[in-house]
Amino acid sequence: MSAQDNTAARLKAIVQILAEQPGAPVKGTEVLAAAVARVPLSEWESEVLSGGVARGVKRLSAATATLVKEGFILKGRTGWTVTEEGARYATAPDAVALAGSFGHRLGAEDWSAAADQVQMAYSPVSQRWELTAQLPAGTYEYKVAIDRSWEENYGAFGVRNGANHVLQHDGGVVTFRYDHSSNDVAVTVLDGALV
Questions:
Q1: What is the dihedral of CA 23, 26, 31, 37, to 10 degrees?
Q2: What is the pTM of this model?
Q3: Please, are residues 90 and 73 in contact by the beta-carbon 8 Å criterion?
Q4: What is the per-residue burial (b if ≥16 Cβ within 10 Å, else e) of 74-85?
Q5: For the chain, domain boundaries
Q6: Which Gene3D superfamilies does this entry report, sorted A to Z (predicted)?
Q7: I need a labelling partner for 120 at 20 to 30 A (CA). Which of 61, 93, 104, 113 fits?
C-alpha cells in the first residue's frame, strides 16, 4: 500500500479503536500507537524526523484533524472519544463496489468486485457510498459487493444475494448512492430525476 493508503487505513483504525471504548476518553498518543500497531509503518514511514517522531506517525497525527472535521471523533483535554457518526463509520465496510454489466464502461471487467474503477467513495456529507459515471444509453444490471469480494453482496431492495438491480438509462451522467444501513442503492441521473 502507498503511504496515503496506509494513513487512510490508520485513520479508520483510530475510529474503530475509539468505538471499541465508547464514552471513555483515550489519550491521543495511545490511540495513535494502537493504530500504528494495526497498520504497521513502512520503511519510509518509519524514518525518524527532527523532533524524534516517525514520518508516518507525524502524518497520521496531522491527518486526525480530518476525523474531527468530519465529525467522527472529538479531541479534548482528557483524551479522544468517538461520536455517534464515528461509531457508524467504524462499522462501515472498507470497500464497496458497484459491480455490474457496465464495468467495461468504467475501465474494469464486467461484474468485477475487486477492480479499483468500480469502488465507491464514502461521503461523510451524505453518509453514503457514491459513484458517479458517464454511461451510454442502455439497460444495465448491477449489485453491491462488499470488501472487494462476492462473499457479501446486495441486490435489488437491499436483499443479500438478491436479484440484480436493473437500470434503464437514457445515457449521460448517473450517480449511484449506497446506504449500508439499508443495503440499498439510490440512483440519480444528471437532470436530478430519481430512478
A1: -90
A2: 0.63
A3: no
A4: eeeeebbbbbee
A5: 3-90, 96-189
A6: Immunoglobulins
A7: 61
Q: Rounded CA gap, 112 and 193, in Å?
A: 28
Q: What are phi and psi of 101, to 5 degrees?
A: -75, -5
CA distance 4 to 93: 18
Instruction: Tell which CATH architecture fits domain 96-189.
Output: Sandwich (2.60)
**Whole-angstrom distance, CA of residue 69 vs CA of residue 67:** 5
> What are the pLDDT tens digits along the chain (195 aa)?
676 778 888 998 999 999 998 778 999 999 999 999 999 999 999 999 988 999 999 999 999 999 999 899 999 999 999 998 888 878 888 899 999 999 999 999 999 999 999 999 988 677 789 999 999 999 999 999 999 999 999 999 999 999 999 999 999 999 999 998 899 999 998 764 444
Domains 3-90 and 96-189 share a fold: no
- Residue 169 CB neighbour total at 10 angstroms: 16
* C-alpha dist (Å) from residue 168 to 155, 158, 174: 16, 19, 11
